[in-house]
Amino acid sequence: MKSLFLTCSLTFFFVFHLFSQVHTSEKPHWVKQQSYETDPDIDLEEVSEGYAILMFNQQTHIPEQKNYYRRVYKIFENAGVQSASDITANYDPTYQTLEFHEISVIRKGKVINKLNPDHFQVIRRETNAENYLYDGTLSATINLSDIRVGDIIDYSLTITGFNPIHKGIFSGTYPLNNAEPIGKIAIDIFSNRDLVYKTTNTDVKPKITKERHFSRYSWNMLNTDKIEFEDNTPFWKFTFQNLFISEYRNWQDVVDWGEEVFRVKEPVSTEMLARIKAIETGYSTQGEKIAAVLNFVQEEVRYLGFESGLGSYKPFAPNQVFEQRYGDCKDKSLLMVTMLRKMGIEAYPVLVNTALKHNINAVLPTPTTFDHCVVKVIDGAGNDLWYDPTMTYQGGTFDRIYFPDYEYGLVLKKGNKTLDSIHSFSSNLIKVRDEYELEEIGKGATLRVTTVYHEGEADNMRSLFKTNGISSIKKQFSNYYKNYFDHVTALDNPTFVDDSIKNRFTVHESYKLDSIWSPMEGNENTLSTRFLPLSLLDILTLPGESQRKNEYSLYYPATRIHDIRIKLPNKWGISDMEKNISCDAFYYNANINYLPSEDLLKIHHYFKSQKKYVTSDEFPEYVKNLKELDNNMAYLLYIPKNYSVSETSSLSGLPAVLLFSLFVIVSLAVLGGLGVVIYFAIRSLNRSKT
């Protein structure tokens, strides 16, 4: 998390050297000198990588469009010599310039100048290249020589230039703490206009001083504590203390900005018009036309983005995107909107934040809040329809196409003043049918699996089969079952049936399990085998604690119907049973049915998540209910080793006292006959075929 403060370590990147000189200069005249403590009152045991940040200072001069940064850190361990000897500053050369003012090493009170422009390398990093996004960012990097334990490194620089796409309207986000303790964080903002600001997780107010034609807003945080992170904290949760600044007065200001940025100023090209006409004549209903346009943009316009400068916000012209057949989220969204509007269908680009969800209401209005662009369509019946043109291999009719649960979006429609609420219809249903045919007791079994994926889950599996070879998928699926069985051999390649209209993707698998029986833990004279609804294990994790400070994120939405059919080699004395667990977070039902005439045991599991998260107050009750589910999810068959195959041709005559209710925990060590018990099932492995 130290990367929040101008990271001092290089990451993997595409490298090509640019013969560009790094400029040096005196610090700007308006910069206020900040002091720091060489031994701040912070817990050094909580500091990682061998060095501690003594001070981070950012000063923003809005009228001059300059950001001044100063960072001071002290090396305490040998590890810090390695991790803190590189200094890197990133900037966008299309509208920004970089100047270093100072790089000093303070050793035993002596200041050693390390600023030498000839020692810099300017490198183009493309950290999102694997996602087909290229932002053109340059990194100026210097590797400091002769760095020792005890050294204090003090450097400062200024980056000049705000993205011109905002036309002088300023907004920014500043950190007020970090994942590790910091001696001092100082934020200074100079403005000739009144600033609107907002903070999260702190009520600290700025000190405001008048300086000639400007006001200086100052926030100082001393000896900040380490942040305690908790597993499964929702992405939308603001864990850090943040400062938000914005000159956008409201969301309508952002809509007005976005309408101008996304405005199409040229007529539709002849080539695009021909494609539009082909869709209009090839499909009869409005819904079919909407789906056809979406399919074209998703499947025939590949995802590729050049995000430098204006390109980080402004889409390319739809004619260009149509011709080049590539674009990023905003390019593809505007192309889809343009084609639909030409057909007389109402459509708008929509800005969303993929992580913040409802917590977007906690930030100030600004375009920089958003990280993605999608499309809203209003059909002839007045229904709101949401589409993500960057997704691929989607199935379903136009009104049942999966859309992620972003919760809120800003529709770029003239006069719009608020965020739109987005409701996802998807249940993400998966139906699984496991059919086990057991050989002799103590031997192996054949497993045949049929899985039906619905909605977004069908899209995911369709994509898996479209983008991977069958041998790779076969290996991936086999490895999945090897997590639960010792010896697994695939009997054939997985096959599938794709119903793209109903968006149901059915996969068939078959395996030979060499051995499914093993000595029971605590009783070596008893053999046992268990049957688990693996699809539930994919989405459930039993927490290791029952108390926490933050919300706990749940897998939502999710519906799982998992049926297990076990063809037994003998007759068993098994009673029908049922179990229900109903709580705010989830609903679970299990049914056990034994058909002695067919030697068939049928186990039915139904699970549905009902909440996106639980609060810290709700968490203990959630853990309690999940433990109850844990104690009721696995089905265990066991038999004494001294029962031979001939003796077990019919086991239904064993004393009834040895047949235990499925949903009662018993001591396995004292069991001497055949029975059915629950076994601890939930694991924190979260293994999934998808």
UniProtKB/TrEMBL annotation:
Signal peptide: 1-24
Transmembrane segments: 656-682
Key words of the record: Membrane, Signal, Transmembrane, Transmembrane helix
Keyword Membrane set for record: yes
InterPro entries found in the cross-reference section: DUF3857, Papain-like_cys_pep_sf, Transglutaminase-like
Occurrences of domain Transglutaminase-like (ranges): 279-378
Occurrences of domain DUF3857 (ranges): 65-224
Top-rank taxon, per record: Bacteria
Keyword match Ribonucleoprotein: no
Name recorded for this polypeptide: Transglutaminase-like superfamily protein
Organism: Sinomicrobium oceani
